[in-house]
């Protein structure tokens, strides 16, 4: 397993998509952007995928899902995220959507920082 979490995992037949190295690099860039904006966070694993959460093993606000990013947003940010082509409610298991969480396709990676900042602000981190 790579130091950032790519590669085979136990239970890899579970259907949870694993990020490739390019996705991990995008998460690193996102983390750098958020840190530069003064957002406080730490890294962790959500559903076995690398993500960002409040310090002290707090709540997650962003995580990779394969090569895509999932963010927990509300209000106007939620509407903006859902309006992006291909964006949808995050549904880690069929029929069980997480209504505040939006899956953002990798093609919208240029919007990841803005939406992840809004997600962090929802937890009082930005």
Q: How is the CATH topology named? A: Aspartate Aminotransferase, domain 1
Shape: globular
Number of helices: 3
Strand content: 15-25%
- List unreliable stretches of 5+ residues: 1-13
CATH structural architecture = Alpha-Beta Complex
Main β-sheet, spatial strand arrangement: 1-2-3-4-6-5
Give the count of structural domains: 1
Give the name of the CATH superfamily.
Transcription regulator MotA, C-terminal domain
> What is the count of β-strands?
6
SSE succession: HEEEEHEEH
The Rg value, from CA coordinates, equals 14 Å
* Helix vs. strand class: alpha+beta
How widely separated are the two ends?
Answer: 32 Å
Briefly summarize what is shown.
This protein has a single domain (17-122), classed as Aspartate Aminotransferase, domain 1 (Alpha-Beta Complex), CATH 3.90.1150.20. Helices cover 29% and strands 25% of the residues. It contains three helices and six strands; from the N terminus they run αββββαββα.
Give an account of the 3D structure.
This protein is an alpha+beta fold and 126 residues long. The chain has one domain: Aspartate Aminotransferase, domain 1. The protein is built from three helices and six strands. A six-stranded antiparallel β-sheet has the order 1-2-3-4-6-5, with helices on one face. Strand 2 (49-53) and strand 3 form a beta hairpin.
Key terms for this structure?
single chain, 126 residues, alpha+beta, Aspartate Aminotransferase, domain 1, 6-stranded antiparallel β-sheet, 3 helices, 6 strands, 25% strand, disordered N terminus
